[in-house]
Amino acid sequence: RRQLVWFRTDLRCEDNTALHHAAQRGPVIGVVCWTPHQWQRHGHGANKLDFWRRGIIALSEYLGRLNIPLKIIRAEGFETLPDQLLALAETLECDALHFNDEYGLNERRRDRQISERFHHQALEVHRYTDQIAFTPGSLLTGDGRYYSVFTPFYKSWLKNIGADQLQQFDAPEAQPAFDDITSDAPIEFDAGNVVIDANDWPAGEEAAQDRLARFLQKRAHHYDEGRDFPAMTATSGLSAWLALGMISWRQCINAAAARNGGHLGDGDSNLKSWISEIIWREFYQHVLVGFPRVNCHQPFQEHTGAMAWRENEEDFQRWCEGNTGYPLVDAAMRQLTTTGWMHNRLRMVTAMFLSKHLLIDWRRGEAFFLEHLVDGELGANNGGWQWAASTGTDAAPYFRIFNPTTQARRFDPEGIFIAKFVPELANVAAKRRHAPDAATCQQTGYPVPMVDHRAARQRALEAFKALS
Ligand code: FAD
């Protein structure tokens, strides 16, 4: 009997749990639901949609080699998908739908509706835990609650992870070709203002595997030394591929463990740290399910909902454009808007600058990031923003406010990164690039700092104190 596999943020054939199990039961037909407007409503921008579209093309090509046709359902939003998927399953004479679970609130609601609709018509639905190791709700604190702090979550993850969860599945063998079903034509979609270059961001699982292999060979063993320095290429750069499931967390963790004597939480501290980052990713997926309010623009720490954020459009625009007068902040924001990606250290620095120095609502920054990031992902982005704004799970304590100049001196000591993204300062002596004086600003046209660090820090402290 024919099996319908719905690919979502798991755009790969290798190590895809739903695809693997479906192929054991009968001939497979793939489907993707192209709902760009829904994703735009969720805040995703052009770079991510472009990468997504190309990822579907790469998936279709790979599936083609396995004689698995890929059908495309186009819809404005999620609402019509139950009917559309059901109609497709009936037309193609499939008796079961398979998919890997996703954890955003709207996605879970959508999947529930679709499952009910299929069951109602006596069609089977098979759902799998694939994007993370533990089904949300199966890894809880001693008193049965979702973790809200990473370290105990991490320890429990390491303690409970089993060989079955780490087991990878090969792509299925090629099946006999259908004579009555062919793949749909590739999606054409004008995503708008795309800044990512397709050569730098090749979509698909083969490109992801290349990146992983290069990272593990060349950089993983020095991850701890280099990971905080934005001018270095020291991290994996895999986030966009992970976000759309062009590579699985198992493929990442198993490949890293293989170079680490099989260890996940011991051994080479570099590999251990990198593996722990992949577990951070999972932590935030559990947070989405355990604390649904974070899906709905609410802070995790509810009392911070009363914060009197400043509404200052001009200040917000200066942050967005990278004209704050703090060179590392500005270089980072320009990296985001001109390349569609930002280094992790800088995501922390810029998010803290907006939410603390400018005291502007973190949700505005969260949305701006999502609009530009090629790797934009609700769990990690929301988690990162709420961490920086001290409103989240395991958040930075509100009084720990990064000094953006000190951060620049520490993590871009030669000012190389600043020079790359803030050309006004490229010809200024390296040591003055971190905090150009008034005369340098005058000469170069670079802005003087829009706020004084100490005064801004004090203002933030007072605003947070007033909450408690
Ligand atoms: P590596 O250092 O190679 O890490 C490997 C993988 O681990 C990453 O690809 C990512 O999947 C995961 N990971 C690493 N750090 C984190 C983290 N702190 N939280 C969750 N997962 C992590 N990551 C996203 O994937 N999408 C986002 O939208 C996103 N928004 C962020 C917003 C803020 C304010 C902050 C502070 C962090 C955000 N992150 C986000 C996490 C992190 O910055 C990126 O995952 C990382 O910079 C991607 O680079 P990399 O692939 O080279 O990471």
From TrEMBL:
Superkingdom: Bacteria
Keyword Flavoprotein recorded: yes
Residues in Photolyase/cryptochrome alpha/beta domain copies: 1-133
Cofactor(s) needed by this chain: FAD; (6R)-5,10-methylene-5,6,7,8-tetrahydrofolate
Family annotation (SUPFAM superfamilies): Cryptochrome/photolyase FAD-binding domain, Cryptochrome/photolyase, N-terminal domain
Family stated for the protein in its record: Belongs to the DNA photolyase family. Belongs to the DNA photolyase class-1 family.
Entry protein name: Deoxyribodipyrimidine photo-lyase
Annotated source species: Kushneria pakistanensis
Lineage per the UniProt record: Bacteria, Pseudomonadati, Pseudomonadota, Gammaproteobacteria, Oceanospirillales
